[in-house]
Automatic annotation (TrEMBL):
Its EC number is 4.1.3.34. This is Citryl-CoA lyase. It holds the Pfam family HpcH_HpaI. Belongs to the HpcH/HpaI aldolase family. It comes from Sphingobium chlorophenolicum L-1.
Amino acid sequence: MDPIRARRSALYMPATNSRAIEKARELPCDVVILDLEDAVAPDMKEVARESALAAARAGGFGRRELVLRVNGLDEPWGKDDLAAARDTGFDAVLVPKVSQVEDLRRCRDKLGAATPLWAMIETCTAFSNLPDLAAASSAAGCKAWVIGTNDLAKEMRCRLDAARTALMPALSFAVIAARARGIALLDGVFNDLEDGDGFEQQCRQGLALGFDGKTLIHPRQVATANRVFSPELDEVRWSQQIVDAFALPENASSGVLKVDGRMVERLHLEEAQRIIALAQLAAE
Ligand SMILES: CC(C)(COP(=O)(O)OP(=O)(O)OC[C@H]1O[C@@H](n2cnc3c(N)ncnc32)[C@H](O)[C@@H]1OP(=O)(O)O)[C@@H](O)C(=O)NCCC(=O)NCCSC(=O)C[C@H](O)C(=O)O
Ligand SMILES: [Mg+2]
């Protein structure tokens, strides 16, 4: 089982933006994603790759996970990006538009066995193959899925309302497929930088769906994502009550207990332990 990690806030930035990368070393986000794909113009792809590698070599990101989003395998730069990212100190390499089981095998071949892999799930083909992709992700050591809601909405040609109604079945099914294989899950980005309330609502929706955190495009989104995806005090207190109840010697052989008038089973104990661990990480 992988250790529990806080991945409440994962901030993208173009790998060409040295000011943003400098800033990311100080921001309270859990994950920093240096982008070589959509945020970088075609004539800057090589410059971006060099700049990302230099940032990884320079370090200074502290506890934040440093992730490189490469170009897609079928783009002109994708294979070179993957080869360059091999064994370079990134905590993970994020591959966009992973759609078929074969894509994961191709990524692993280029990356080698040691470099952790994450996948963007954002095409209609991917969403048509979710259980197979989850099984193949697990076999390929792919530890996290990042949902690309912009690409998905574009391919679906759906019209998005504030509640993302058209995406709900897809998002929910992605959570189920990923959880079945122990894969972490990050929700898509919120494009309107001026709409703080809408952003918070969408974070809350992601949390309710089961996501571990949200991908972000601007530093101003970090604090809200951290707050929403951290366990609330009441939740932590209740979790501690469950842990304490099962720890009593007289309950050592009990599968089910009554705590504060509510039934709790050992499955609740597992979730309570996860919430307490997450709260500790969030406090750090
Ligand atoms: C959206 C932006 C282009 C806006 O940039 P800008 O107008 O420069 O913002 P501000 O003037 O408000 O910036 C204020 C300061 O904050 C720094 N900054 C801005 N953005 C970031 C960032 N992402 N990370 C770190 N720091 C950032 C600025 O440098 C300013 O600093 P200072 O000089 O000290 O004041 C811009 O925010 C941006 O480029 N965002 C990221 C875009 C991106 O990476 N997009 C790709 C990922 S999203 C995606 O691909 C979706 C997915 O694939 C899907 O399909 O859904
Ligand atoms: Mg995308």
